[in-house]
Structure formats: structure tokens, C-alpha cells
Predict the 3D structure of the following.
Amino acid sequence: MDKIRTLLLTGANNHDWARSAHFCKGLLEKTGRFSVQLETDPSIALADAGALKDYDLFFVDYCGPDWSETARTNFESAVRGGTGLVLLHGATVGFKDWVEFEKMAALCWREGTGHGDYHEYKVQITDHEHPITRGMDDFVTWDELYHRMVPMHGAAYHVLATAYSAPEKKGTGAHEPMLLVSQYGRARVFYQILGHVWPKGSGDYKGHTMMSFENASFQKSLLRGCEWAATGEVTLP
């Protein structure tokens, strides 16, 4: 079975991208299913449209300055043509004037979106038949719990898992999406809304640690989501 050729785009984020991106690269490669090229300047990495044909999957762990117009155009064209796309956690905070990216994501962090405390909560699987979540049980994790994510431009999406945003944790009192899939052109898109890690700091704030990424069910859903986005199937356990 050929490896899934993955381009991991990072280099700026309000979270600790240096830890999260390298962790995800290692996690993917450890399966033996993926080969991962990590790039910290997406405008350069996406500058050659022809070179992007070498990839089966784009993994975006980025929230920072807008990419160049050329990079955006090439990225749109590749995804529309069928290159799978995975978005991690805060990847939808930026790109507020990029309509096509917002359509890819389907749900974005926009005005009115927020999160409560970094805390322990249960993630509930709502679709037990989708290849990503088939056979997965509900699980407990420590993470940020994004709430009031904004649907963009009428783009269709399907929620695979939710979590209850508890008012006592500064939440909404509603069940909020945590895992979702969508379609953009010929591409499958997986948005892993979980995945917080704050830059290292002092004190006992757990959000500075890699707890969210070390969670076995987070890893399982992320790996399955990557494989599904790239191939439409899931062979990973």
C-alpha cells in the first residue's frame, strides 16, 4: 500500500505550532501509512502548482498572516481537484477574507465564537457509521471546547462528534461540534476542532501541556480523519 503523501502547513499560530505540528508529523509517520513534509512558510510551499500534484493530503496547523495570492490560488485548485484536507483546532481563526477557505472549512471561528475554561469533558460520538468514527466510543479529554462556531456561506457539513459546553465552565449550555467532515469540489475535508496546546509557561495550567494531543482517542480520530480525507477509506485501527 502506497504511503499517503502529506504536506503539513504550519509556521504561525496563536497556539504552540512548533510542538503541535511536529507531534502530528511524528504521529502520522509512526503509523507507516503517511509520509509527511512539514513546511513553515506556506506561501513558499504552495508557490509551485505543479509540485502540489505530488501530495494526497494537506494538513493545516496554521493561524497567522495571510498566504500570498499565488499560494491561495494553488491551494484552492489542488483541493478542488481532490487533494484531501485536514484542519486542526484554531486553523479557522484566520483567513477572514478568504471565502473559498471558509467554504472548505464550513465552520469557522468568527465573531461570536469562543471557548470556556480548558477543562476535562466528554466527547460524544454522534455518527457511529462514518468510517472515521465507526467503532469508536465516547471519550473523555482535556481540551478547549470551542463554542458558537459560525457556518460559512451555506457550505454543507456533517458532525461526527459533539461535546456539552457546560455553563459552569463558561460554556453555552449546548452541545457543540468537535469532529466534522465536509466536501469541497472533489476533496474530502476533515476538521478536528480538538487540539489545544498553549505556548509553554510557568504554573500549573494544564493547557500548557500536551495533554490534548496525548489522548488516545484524539489521536485515533485524527489519524483516521487524515486517512479518510486522503483516500475515502479507513484502514487504521
Summary: The radius of gyration is 17 Å. The chain is about 25% helix and 25% strand. The mean pLDDT is 97.
